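$ fold --in a.seq
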Amino acid sequence: MIPYIVKDIQHFCNVSVNKCTKIKSHVIPYYDLTFVLKGELTYLANGKTYLLQKDDAILLPPGTLRERLEGTEKVEYGSFNFQVFSDDALPRENFLKNVITRDIRNLLSLFSQRHLSPAYHSKEKLCNLLNYILFEIVDSVAMGSN
C-alpha cells in the first residue's frame, strides 16, 4: 500500500474567471498541480511551453522555473501548491493530457475557497482530497500507458 502523498498544502484555488492573470517567472519551492476544467491556460516551465485545455493538467516539481501567461478568454481551473512526504508515487510527466476524470470533477465540486478556514479541519480535508485526486491521476496515467 502506498502511504499518503501530501504532507502540506500552501495554496488551493478552484475558480472561474473571464481571463486569468499572469504569474511572473519564478522558481517554485513546492509542487504545483494545475488543471483546466473549461477554456485554456498557457504555462512556461523551465523554458518549455505547455497549453492546457479542458481536462488537461500540469504537475510541476519544486525547483521548476514557472510562468503563466495572461489569458484572453474565460477559464475554469483549479490549482494546488503542496509539499509531499515522498514523490515516488507521482507521475514523472509534467504535462498530463486528458487526465481529469469525472471523479476528479466531482471531488473538486465538494470543496471551494469558502471552505478554507482554520476551523472544521479544512486543511486536513483538503489534504485528503488532494491525495485522492493524485491517486486518481496516477491510476489514469498508468491505465493510459497500459
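$ fold --in b.seq
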Amino acid sequence: MEEIEMRVFEDLSLQNYKRWIIPFVDEVLEYTKLKKGKILDIGAGPGLVVKEFASRSHHFEVIGIDISPKAIQLAKKNCDGLGNVRFLVADVYQLPFPERSFDVVVCKDSLHHFDNLRKALKEMLRVLKKDGFLYLQDLRRDLPKYLLERSVPPDTILKKLQFYSTRAAYTKQELEKTLRELHIHNPQIRTRKVTDQLKKKYKESGIDFVQLKEGFQARYIAIIKPK
C-alpha cells in the first residue's frame, strides 16, 4: 500500500478493532489452545493483530513482519508499551527465521497481496513447528454480490482498497489447489458463520451482529497443519 492508503487502512482498522481483530484472535486461540509460545503475523500492517495477541498473555512472544517500512512504523506506535512484541521489515517470500520457529503463524487479510501464493505459503509452512498451526483469513473474490456492490464505483480511497483487494483475492478452490501442490491435504477452509453463541458473546462486547455477519461472509479462513 502507498502511505496514504496505509493511513486510511489504519484508521479503518482502529474504528473496527472490536469487530475485525477480537473475533479473529479469539478463533485462533480457541482452536489452537495456545497458552504460551511464539506467534508470527504475516503482513502485520498497523500491528493491531500483534497488539491483541500480545495483550492476551505475557507468555506469548509475538512478531509481526511487513514489507512496508511505513506499516512497521505505525505498528510500533500502536504497540508502544508492550514488551513481548517485535516488528521487522521483511518479505513473505524470504522470511528471516530458521525452520520450525513458530507455534502459530497467522496471515489476516493479506494473502491477496501475494502474487506467488505457492511460494508465500511454502515459506509460512517452513517456519512453522511440526505441531504448529497456520491460520489464514482473507477476502473472497467470489464474495456475495451485495457486499461487492458497496465498493462500486471505486471512487474513494476506501472503496478502491475494498474493490481492488477483493478482485485480487483468491478463491477457496485456488487456495486448496495450491496447498495440494505443497502436499498439504484436507485443510479446513470455510467461511465462518455467526452462531447464537457468538452472537450473544459479541453482543456483550458491543459488536453489531449484522456487521459481524457481513465481515464473516466477505472472507474465508483456512486452518493448516504442516506436513
